[in-house]
Amino acid sequence: MLRSHRIAVIGLNGGAGKTTTALALGAVLARERADRVVAVDASPDSGALGRRVRRQSGATVLDLVAALPRLRTYMDIRAFTSQTPSGLEVVAHDPDPADPRALGEQEYRQVVEALAGQYPLVITDAGTGMPHDVLGAVLDVSDQLVVAATPSEDGMSGANLLFDRLAALAHEEKAREAVTVISGVRSPSGRSALADQAVAQLRQRCRAVVTVPYDSRLARGGEVDPEAMRGRTRDAYHELATLVAGNFPRL
């Protein structure tokens, strides 16, 4: 039976780089490994993941939920995904205020279970406005967390607050094994003085911290292709992928 590893990219603040991190991590893992990799948008309101790829399917995660009873094979699910040049597949979410459907806790669990049956690596892009029960499901079913933050004072305090909340929700072990990604660092040395101090604090709360330099291509939005990034930015995402892969189960 396929053993799937489930990674959740989370963050307390909007604009922390969750979607970029999920796409870049997924792209590197898909390119470097022989495994199928899928990223699913679990955001309740933004749908950013699907806007950052060239859509091959107009289907969304809610369409996937509706079709779950008849999905049996990889090709059945593939009709609901869009594949990037790296091989990463994406299940989009295009929230529509006029659509009464919503991605609730049970629906999210069912989606991840279905994807885990066909993809060895499942990445969740978790939104900031996610209902408490859905966030609880994301944390429950994940094997590993990636915490997204920015080098601003708000971004750093938000990351620390998120670790406090993980502890309060009885996910201390997952918090300790998490990797924190600080995105958009502009200083020539790779970290500002603020980030140096914050990184030292965050290293006490998680397994590792990766700093991603500011990259104008990423700042513009659009597709995320690690091979088209500046060298230091690409190296940072490869470091992230190596750290995440270090916690994959040994079969």
Could you describe the 3D structure shown?
It is a single chain. The chain is of the alpha/beta class and 251 residues long. It has a single domain, classed as Rossmann fold. It contains 11 helices and 8 strands. An 8-stranded mixed sheet has the order 3-4-2-5-1-6-7-8, sandwiched between helices. Helix 9 links the parallel strand 7 (179-185) and strand 8 (208-213). Helix 7 (153-168) packs parallel to helix 9. The chain is globular.
Low-confidence stretches: none
What value does the average pLDDT take? 88
Order of helices and strands: EHEHHHEEHEHEHHEHEHH
Q: Residue share in helices?
A: 40-55%
Quote the beta fraction. Answer: 15-25%
CATH architecture: 3-Layer(aba) Sandwich
Tell me the strand order in the biggest sheet.
3-4-2-5-1-6-7-8
Q: Say which CATH homologous superfamily is assigned.
A: P-loop containing nucleotide triphosphate hydrolases
The name CATH uses for the topology is Rossmann fold
